[in-house]
């Protein structure tokens, strides 16, 4: 066992002092806060990434510097494990401890504790691949990260400015290179080639689609979408909007997938361009979330969110498995959260197994791994499809008995190539949606008519202590504060098609209330009544009670 290079860690750590008054938390999306406060955190993540790689025998770890759909001033950093997945949960705690060590000496102690507790052999090599989005705080944070690698003697590979899902792809491609499970060429170019080629195979002979407009949120998705446009050419004409990546203040501003989902209206930049019936979609600031939409003949906006995508894709895959003659052995399942629209859950549950898990992509991802083919999407448009290794092997050795079975099997194999199975990937998901629409000859209208969304409403309640709110049953029921769930149940019973649940947010200091009901006015009323209950129960100041919260 060798030792930590204490001298070099000390020297470089002095260049990245921790702000005394701030506490950092490795949360659902890694560390995420004002970009100007993250210098020490990112330096230390560089150290931790090196240790994580050593722990895993020198496998390559990923680091992504992004704050996704957050405002432009924010930034963030998260680690990616060797198979392209999110960092193992136990290391989130290490990350938080290391980020908060007040001094360089305390940092060294914290690092030594991690080395001891995780039994890390420091003589192993350390390799990290890293990237950032287009935020202006990015370059300085990347320098801090590189100092972290330098301090530990880790080997870094800079993947430049790219999307979060491409970084996840790279991590997996690097770690599976020259193995039987090779994920593809370990370069951005390899990613574009892999996805475009499978898209072309899947849409060969189909009618050439109308141009698709992509709202790139003025973020890094604009760069990746432009590369796809070149690779895809006429097979999928793309019109890019909101591509102003260098304009200060433009990122995610009145555009992007989160804006569209929250505001349920067109993003800026599309308002005068979208023709009735034309398909458009929005990416978020790091291109891992996707929202589709269209305007009808009267100019009304219709949104096709993560639930609609899950439904479209799951139904398509179920059909392919059946047509390939594999339905008796390969089971397709869907994973959602409580925020999934009740109408989507009903539609899906009539056709295949559906599981509900706690909010946060890692929960969905892990649950989806339990199916032969697991489809998971959050309503906000983050999701993907996972094909288990045995399923992929079965595809490879299966012998179809009819030409129709053979065609379906080939489509399934090409889907395993088209879909970024490491993480939700807006552009890969977009290609997937386009494949299904082409196969089904669906327009947005037909896709949207698979089921009608139940009207719903999401409300934030600011409370003094959101930790007092504890849930069970995949966050669908409150166990504390005591008695509150019974009151919610009593209210919900009064509304036709009513459903409501309350949970503390994992990313904001609020409690979220979700409600749906058969009619829009009722879903709003139910949400505001439950919000009122929550506010009062949490001891909210009566004089500051938001006026929309009903008694
Ligand atoms: C209602 C909602 O959209 N919640 C989001 C939000 O989580 P909260 O724990 O609800 O703050 O951020 C998560 C991370 O991006 C995302 O996974 C999740 O879907
Ligand atoms: Mg994102």
Provide a descriptive summary of the structure in words.
The chain contains 18 helices and 19 strands. It is α/β, with parallel strands linked by helices and 551 residues long. The strands form 5 sheets. The chain has a 5-stranded mixed beta sheet, with helices on both faces. A hairpin with a 6-residue loop joins strand 8 (280-283) and strand 9. The longest helix has 18 residues, at 306-323. Magnesium ion (MG) binds at residues 68-69, 284, 286, 288-289.
In short:
This protein is an alpha/beta fold and 551 residues long. The chain contains 18 helices and 19 strands.
Any key phrases for this structure?
isomerase, phosphoacetylglucosamine mutase activity, alpha/beta, 18% strand, magnesium ion binding, AMG1_II, binds 2-acetamido-2-deoxy-1-O-phosphono-alpha-D-glucopyranose, five-stranded mixed β-sheet, magnesium, 40% helix, 551 residues, binds magnesium ion
Topology:
Layout: H1 6-14, E1 31-34, H2 39-55, E2 60-65, E3 74-80, H3 89-100, H4 104-117, E4 127-132, H5 138-152, E5 155-161, H6 164-176, H7 188-203, E6 212-215, H8 221-232, E7 238-241, H9 257-263, E8 280-283, E9 290-295, E10 301-304, H10 306-323, E11 332-337, H11 342-349, E12 354-357, H12 361-368, E13 373-377, E14 383-387, H13 389-397, H14 403-418, H15 426-440, H16 444-448, E15 456-461, E16 470-472, E17 477-480, H17 484-492, E18 499-504, E19 511-516, H18 520-537
Helix pairs in contact: 1-5, 2-3, 2-5, 3-4, 7-8, 7-14, 7-15, 10-11, 10-14, 17-18
């Amino acid at each position: 066992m060798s030792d930590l290079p204490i001298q070099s860690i000390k020297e470089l750590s002095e260049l990245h002092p921790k702000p005394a008054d701030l506490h950092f938390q490795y949360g659902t999306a890694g560390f995420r806060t004002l970009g100007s406060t993250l210098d020490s955190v990112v330096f230390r993540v560089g150290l931790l990434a090196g240790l994580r790689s050593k722990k895993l025998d020198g496998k390559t770890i990923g680091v992504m510097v992004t704050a996704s759909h957050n405002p432009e001033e924010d930034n963030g950093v998260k680690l990616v494990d060797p198979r392209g997945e999110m960092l193992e949960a136990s290391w989130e705690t290490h990350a938080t401890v290391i980020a908060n060590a007040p001094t360089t000496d305390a940092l060294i102690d914290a690092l030594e504790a991690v080395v001891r507790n995780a039994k890390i052999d420091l003589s192993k090599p350390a390799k990290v691949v890293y990237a950032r989005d287009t935020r202006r705080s990015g370059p300085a944070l990347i320098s801090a990260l590189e100092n972290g690698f330098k301090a530990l003697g880790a080997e870094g590979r800079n993947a430049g400015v790219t999307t979060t899902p491409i970084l996840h792809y790279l991590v997996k491609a690097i770690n599976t290179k020259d193995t039987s499970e090779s994920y593809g060429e370990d370069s951005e170019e390899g990613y574009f080639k892999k996805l475009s080629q499978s898209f072309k195979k899947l849409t060969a002979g189909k009618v050439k689609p109308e141009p698709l407009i992509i709202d790139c949120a003025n973020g890094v998705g604009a760069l990746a979408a432009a590369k796809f446009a070149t690779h895809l050419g006429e097979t999928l004409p793309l019109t890019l909007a909101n591509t102003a990546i260098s304009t200060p203040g433009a990122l995610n501003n009145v555009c992007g997938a989160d804006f569209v989902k929250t505001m349920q209206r067109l993003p800026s930049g599309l308002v005068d361009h979208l023709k009735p019936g034309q398909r458009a979609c929005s990416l978020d600031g790091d291109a891992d979330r996707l929202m589709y939409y269209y305007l009808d003949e009267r100019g009304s906006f219709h949104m096709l969110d993560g639930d609609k995508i899950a439904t479209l894709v799951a139904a398509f895959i179920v059909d392919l498995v059946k047509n390939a003659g594999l339905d008796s052995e390969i089971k397709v399942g869907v994973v959602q959260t409580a925020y999934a629209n009740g109408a989507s859950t009903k539609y899906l549950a009539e056709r295949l197994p559906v599981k509900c898990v706690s909010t946060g992509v890692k929960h969905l991802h892990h649950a989806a791994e339990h199916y032969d083919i697991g489809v998971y999407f959050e309503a906000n448009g983050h999701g993907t499809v996972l094909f288990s290794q045995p399923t992929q092997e079965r595809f490879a050795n299966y012998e179809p008995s009819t030409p129709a079975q053979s065609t379906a099997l080939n489509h399934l194999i090409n889907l395993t190539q088209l879909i970024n199975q490491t993480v939700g990937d807006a552009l890969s998901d977009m290609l997937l949606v386009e494949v299904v629409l082409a196969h089904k000859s669906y327009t947005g209208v037909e896709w949207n008519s698979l089921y009608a969304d139940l009207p719903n409403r999401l409300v934030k309640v600011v409370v003094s202590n959101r930790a007092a709110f504890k849930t069970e049953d995949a966050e669908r029921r409150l166990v504390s504060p005591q008695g509150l769930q019974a009151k919610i149940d009593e209210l919900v019973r009064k509304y036709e098609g009513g459903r409501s649940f309350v949970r503390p947010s994992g990313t904001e200091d609020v409690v979220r209330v979700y409600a749906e009901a058969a009619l829009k006015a009722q879903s709003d009323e139910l949400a505001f009544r439950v919000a009122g209950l929550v506010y009062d129960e949490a001891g909210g100041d009566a004089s500051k009670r938001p006026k929309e919260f009903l008694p």
